[in-house]
Amino acid sequence: xxxxxxxxxxxxxxxxxxxxxxxxxxxxxxxxxxxxxxxxxxxxxxxxxxxxxxxxxxxxxxxxxxxxxxxxxxxxxxxxxxxxxxxxxxxxxxxxxxxxxxxxxxxxxxxxxxxxxxxxxxxxxxxxxxxxxxxxxxxxxxxxxxxxxxxxxxxxxxxxxxxxxxxxxxxxxxxxxxxxxxxxxxxxxxxxxxxxxxxxxxxxxxxxxxxxxxxxxxxxxxxxxxxxxxxxxxxxxxxxxxxxxxxxxxxxxxxxxxxxxxxxxxxxxxxxxxx
Length: 275
Known about the structure:
Layout: E1 2-7, H1 13-22, E2 27-32, E3 35-40, H2 46-52, E4 55-60, H3 66-72, E5 77-79, E6 83-87, E7 99-103, H4 115-127, E8 134-137, H5 143-150, E9 156-160, H6 163-169, E10 177-179, E11 190-196, H7 199-211, E12 213-225, H8 229-238, E13 242-249, E14 252-258, E15 271-273
Parallel strand pairs: 6-7, 8-9, 8-11, 9-10, 11-12, 13-15
Antiparallel strand pairs: 1-3, 1-4, 2-3, 5-6, 12-14, 13-14
């Protein structure tokens, strides 16, 4: 067995982990916020893996059950007031009053463990109601679409431009899942649009994200860090968005955006820190 060590920008950690699992990794250890060590069996092509993942070093390793050790790091998580997120290999029952959501932590972005996913799940609790129309853009593993359905949203649409992500989300994101993006959605059709994607993608899709909102709808947008928030805000406002709220976890940020004033709610940049 051998391991490779690689740099990992915080905003791409979930995507890198998903790529490593698809490459046949035996286990993954987080060395720091910006470095990972991945373990592979000896028959794996070390040179190819080092080039593919831009590894900075490699070393031989003793034989250990790295899968079991990696899984041991994944504990069930209470998210917001309503959700209980559990790795697929655990059988822990949900606490009373919470929805149990099973995820595969190695398959796609949006496992419930990352701060941006938690921010979005908490926002769904705040802004969705039974019967609300919801669109999940860049659905990944489908966790936000599934959460919306559990909260009573109907219909729920989910889309992604990555065919692999679509296969992972199939069966969890609901029946209205399609390959594509927000530009395929009719104008003023959603009460809530969620997008937990990169800041560059949010900026590029801003006109369509806002176009799809109904009169008093909101967009719940995350996937960017605090230092990127100003640029994201500016692009959304340039296309007619009104920032309703901002929430934070660690170094990560989430914005709640509308296209017009909500009745009785002033148009201010209200910030709600979340510990």
